[in-house]
Automatic annotation (TrEMBL), chains A, B:
Protein known as: CRP/FNR family transcriptional regulator
Domain Cyclic nucleotide-binding: 39-108
Domain HTH crp-type: 170-243
Organism: Hansschlegelia beijingensis
Coiled coil (residue ranges): none
Amino acid sequence: MVQVRVAAYPVNGIDEFLAGTRSDPASHCVNCSARHLSVCSALKPEDLLYTHQLSETVRIPAGETVFIAGEPARSVYTIKSGTLRLYRILPDGRRQIVGFIGAGDFLGLALAGRYSYSADAVDEVCACRIDRGLYMSFMSKRPHLLRRLHEVANQELILAHDHMVLLGRRSAEEKVAAFLLSLRERMRRLGTSMVTLALPMSRADLADYLGLTIETVCRVVSKLARQKILLVVPHGVRLLDPRRLEEIGAS
Amino acid sequence: MVQVRVAAYPVNGIDEFLAGTRSDPASHCVNCSARHLSVCSALKPEDLLYTHQLSETVRIPAGETVFIAGEPARSVYTIKSGTLRLYRILPDGRRQIVGFIGAGDFLGLALAGRYSYSADAVDEVCACRIDRGLYMSFMSKRPHLLRRLHEVANQELILAHDHMVLLGRRSAEEKVAAFLLSLRERMRRLGTSMVTLALPMSRADLADYLGLTIETVCRVVSKLARQKILLVVPHGVRLLDPRRLEEIGAS
DNA sequence: CGACCAATTGATCATACTCAACATCGGTGG
DNA sequence: CCACCGATGTTGAGTATGATCAATTGGTCG
C-alpha cells in the first residue's frame, strides 16, 4: 500500500493546490508578506484559501484618502506596506491624528456601521481589502478570529491610553522623544532594528499627532539635533544617543 | 392532555426557579439594576442563573483603590452604582485619568493578563465582581458575549479617540464645556435628564482628566458661572444655558 | 467649634503659539 | 541640465494661554 501524506489542505502540498486556484502565487494570502504580522496569523491554512477569494489587493497613492469619518464602513483592510494616518477633524478645521498605522495593522474593525475616523495614505500604501459584510460573516463562523480581533482592539485601547497620557501630561520635548522611541520600538518588533528611523509623515502630521504646532516640532527636533541626541536626515532621523532620548521620553 | 408551557428556564417561571437557588432575590443577576445597561444584556436567562453563581457583589468605599496598573488581572467587574476613575501615573507622579466609569460599565476586559491602568473609587461604588479566569471560560463558550464585549471595546476606543481630540486640540474652556456636555449626554442615556449635573470627582480629578491644572479648571468654571452659563452647586453644576455651552464645546 | 482639606482667586511666569521671514527640497519645463 | 516655482521645513521675535506660586475662603467632619 502506498503511503499518503495527510495535510490540512487537500492534495499533496499547498503549492500544488494553489496552482489550480489562481495564477499569481505572490498575491496569494498564503504568501502574503504581512500575514504573520497581522490578524491573519489567527487564520488556519484552509481559512486562507477562502480569504484569498474574498480579498483584493489595492494600491493607495501617497496623500490619497481611503475613507472619511462618518462614512458607511464598506471595507476592512490589512496593511501590507506603507503608512496611513488616522484622524478626526473639528468643525473649525483643527485636526488630531489618533494614530499612524503600517504593515500588519488592521483597519476598519469598528463594529458600528460607520467609520469613526478618517484615514489617508502618508506614503504609497499597499493593502488587502475585504468587503466588510463578507468579512463579518466569515468572522462569525470563526470564533478564534473574533477572539484575535478583540485582542487587537484591546491592544489599540492601551495605545490610545498611552497617547492620552502623552497629550495630556507631557511637555513638547517629551512628546517628540516618546514618539521617536515608540517608532523605534515598532521597528524592533518588525525585525528591522536600525539606528535610522524613517519618518514618512510631514511635520504637520507630527504636530497634529502630538498636539503641538509645526514650529514647535521643528524647534524640538532641532534642539535634539543640537544636543547630538539625533541627526536629521531626509525623511527620517538617525538616533545618535538613544539613552539620553529615553531619559527625556521615559514613560 | 394537559397543556404545558415551555420556557427557557425549567419550571413555570423564573421566580419559582430562583426560590430554590438562593435566599436573597434582590442580589440576583436577574434582578440586577445594572443588567440592562451592561454587557450582561447580551446574556440569556439561563446564562444569568450561572453568572449568579460566579459573581459576588462588592462595596468599594470612596477613595479606595480597586487595582493598580501592571498588577495581574484577577477580576472583572460590572459597576452597579458609583463612579470610578481609571488612570495612569508617570514615574514623576504626573497623572492622566483616561476615563470615568459608572453604572453599567464593564471593568477589566483587557485580555492581556495584567491591568493596563489603575482604578479607584471616586465615591462609594457598588460592583459585581467575577473571577477573571472563570469569566474567560464562561465567555469562551458564549460567542454572543464575546461579540458584545468586542462591541464595548470598540465603543471605548471611539471614546478614547474623542478624548485624544480634546486633549490635543482644544482650549481649556472647550475642554471643560465638552466634558460637561458629555456628562449630560451620559445622564440622558441612563434616563435621568436633569439640568443639574452631579460631579462626584474633585477638581484635581477633573484637571487630570482634561489635561489641565486644578486652578485652570476652577477659573474656567468660575468664568462660565460669571457668564450665567451654569451655576456652581455643591458636588455639581446646574446648567443654565446649555445652548451656549454647546457653542463653546461643539465637537 | 475648630482643624483640615478642597476650592477659589490673584499675581507672576514660562511654555508653546502666532506671525513672519527665510531656507531647502522636489518637481517641472525651458 | 539648470532655473524656477510651490510646498515643506526652519528659525526668529513677540505674545498669550495656561502653569506656578501664594494667599484666602469655604465645606466637612470629628
